Amino acid sequence: MPSIGEALQWASERLAGGESPKLDARVMLQYVLACDTAYLLTWPERQLSPQQWQQYQTWLNQREQGEPVAYIVGEREFWSLSLSVSPATLIPRPDTEVLVELCLKKAKNHADTKIVDLGTGSGAIALALASELPLAQISASELREDALALAQHNAQKLGLEQVCFKQGSWFAPFMGERFDFILSNPPYIDTEDPHLVQGDVRFEPSSALTAEQHGLADIQEIIQQAPDYLKPGGWLMFEHGYDQKQAVQACLLAAGYSEVFTEQDYAGLDRVSGGRYVSNGERD
């Protein structure tokens, strides 16, 4: 059987040409061995067992076929939380943490803050906020039953069961409710975008990725419906494509939102936009 160091070298060479061969090789081996990076670095001469070696080869074959590492190992970290993931949901990405940061900054730890996450998927946004705002009222909607079950599993696993998950499309489960913050990472990729046949997104659910009208259909629907579910002066904030800033800001302004803004992600790309909604009567 190969040693840890030999297995990592072999896997990195097999994955050469990918975006992150060494990182992928390391992450998969950590899960096979149930260890951390420090262990791999400290004990490179330790041999894998036959079962570990077989598992590692199987996972490497899956990765060579393009399957995302997160789906292979069944987990992805988001906001320092270890989330279970599956092909039923998008893989949580660091860029979405910008949306969490903005909400936390504006909520200012108010215990009575009421927040909803639309289309929660694995529950990443709602659970990240729950971990920081234990007294807030946090709800989340999800249309797909298998994705909703995964989000509920993550809440239980992380001990964040105060989040109220409901099945339904966008606002449908929350008739008559009002929120201080409405958040979402909706589908925003154009159905004809060539990137859909490249990389990890090939394996992610298209219903969570793409939207009609050049990727803006779901965003426009949320913008139009949100005023009926926002408290006076409440915030709507959502993730969008790097090239959609002008279009989404125009939609927000046309719908009567104020203090419209766009925030960049960690790569310096426009990623999150939003605004406050104050009715004409409240303005007067």
TrEMBL record:
InterPro entries: DNA_methylase_N6_adenine_CS (IPR002052), HemK-like (IPR004556), Methyltranfer_dom (IPR025714), N5-glutamine_MTase (IPR050320), PrmC_N (IPR040758), RF_methyltr_PrmC (IPR019874), SAM-dependent_MTases_sf (IPR029063). It catalyses: L-glutaminyl-[peptide chain release factor] + S-adenosyl-L-methionine = N(5)-methyl-L-glutaminyl-[peptide chain release factor] + S-adenosyl-L-homocysteine + H(+). The keyword Cell inner membrane does not apply. Keywords: Methyltransferase, S-adenosyl-L-methionine, Transferase. The keyword S-adenosyl-L-methionine applies. Residues 6-74 form the Release factor glutamine methyltransferase N-terminal domain. SUPFAM superfamilies: S-adenosyl-L-methionine-dependent methyltransferases. It holds the Pfam family Methyltransf_31. Its EC number is 2.1.1.297. GO terms for molecular function: methyltransferase activity. S-adenosyl-L-methionine binds at residues 119-123, 142, 170, 185. Belongs to the protein N5-glutamine methyltransferase family. PrmC subfamily. This is Release factor glutamine methyltransferase. The gene is prmC.
